[in-house]
Amino acid sequence: MKTIGMCVVSLLVLASCHPAEKPVAKKGGGPVPVRVAAAVRQAVPLELRTFGAVQALQSVEIRAQVGGPITKLHFQEGQEVQAGELLVSIDARPMEAVLKLAEANLARDRALQADAARESARQEELFKKGLAALDAAEHARTQAEALAATVTADESAVATARLNLEYCTIRSPLAGRVGERRVDAGNLVKANEQVLVTVNQIQPVEVSFTLPQQEVARILAAQAQGPLEVRAFVAERPDQVNTGVLTFVDNAVDVATGTIRLKGKFENAKRTLWPGEFVSVVLRVGLDANALTIPGTAVMAGQKGPLVFVAKPDQTTDARFVKIIRTHEQTAVVGTGIAEGEQVIVDGQQRLFPGAAIRVAAPPVETQKPKPETHKAN
Description:
conserved putative lor/sdh protein from methanococcus maripaludis s2 fold; CATH 2.40.50.100; elongated; 4 domains; Elongation Factor Tu (Ef-tu), domain 3; 6-stranded mixed β-sheet; 378 residues; disordered C terminus; alpha+beta
């Protein structure tokens, strides 16, 4: 046992005599196979990204304009309706009776007014011949004018009664989709009090969103050159992108948030946007005609920021910290750290370290070109 203990002590003493070695990256195994792409200058759209909410282009709360019991609902919840389509019927019998009374009063007063007009003309003729007093002629004329005014009032009463009778049948003022019904047939409703149902127009729709006040000048300058394209999509369905046009820029910045409110109009032909949804919004405000770009797959997260491995002519690598100004689709726009024409590694960089030997696979990867700018609403 003593012999074993002395051997262990001897090994520990020998180990303590050597300085601690720093760990080094493994450089064996030959060059690392990689794929590269060149940093190129090209036109890249200038885009502002934010979030927004879908709104119905028009939303109408349907209310009764006359009181009475509901006799029938002519729609189903969630039904598509056209402008002018019948939605609700209210008992029209009281309004029909009021209309008949108004029409009877009008007929009576028209007859009286016609008789008064004839009498006024007769008294006027007699006065001219000296056969009637001035007072009689003036009295007859006053009676005729009063009855003419009464007829006008009766005509207004008839028009009001007819209008109220029309209000007993409620029709949709727009084409859209009805929501949840708030009342059932048989309920008594009062004029302008209770919402019966809401109709939302969902083709087209609007998307409302905000952007920082610092972007206002750029947006207005771009809008002066022509319509601005807006894209919107739900985060869960990024492949279903809707394209629209910017239609509204608010006339003031919100002092509480320092943002400006904007709206885009979307035809929503496939109905992938629904009122109330939160969506991602991309507003195109111009074009950077000479941006230095690399594939987004070349950029890694480093301790000091975005990191890119560059393939040197001697088949080794150099690690560069770069400034990424923005990204567009799969393309990154570089501010500093990379020169035009340099080859960046887009595949296999996870196995690299500065100075690592590499073997470049052919052919090189091409930096993606942004899609051409369009302003068509889909």
